[in-house]
Amino acid sequence: MNTINQVVVRIAAERIISGGLNPKTEKVYIIDDITNQEYRIAVEDYILKNTEGI
Q1: Are the CB atoms for 18 and 32 separated by under 8 Å?
Q2: Phi and psi for 34 in degrees, rounded to 5?
Q3: Are 18 and 52 in contact (CB under 8 A)?
Q4: How many CB atoms neighbour CB 47 within 10 A?
Q5: Residue 25 Cα to chain centre, angstroms
């Protein structure tokens, strides 16, 4: 099992929440850009915990 880097999770989640750019594609960062399943789940959880109204 890999260790999830919470700093990476926070950065990715904040970019998604704010409509920021994916540094690899230079397009708006979306959850589907995250291909590692463990990170995707961690980012989804972060967004759910840190977004009002969800």
Answers
A1: no
A2: -90, 110
A3: no
A4: 17
A5: 15
Segment-wise mean pLDDT, segments of 10 residues, the chain, 54 residues: 89 95 94 96 96 72
Separation between Cα atoms, residue 3 and residue 17, nearest integer Å: 23
Contact 30, 39 (CB under 8 A): no
In single-letter form, the type of residue at position 21 comes to L
Q: How many CB atoms lie within 10 A of CB 9?
A: 21
- Its pTM stands at 0.85
Q: Are 47 and 29 in contact (CB under 8 A)?
A: no
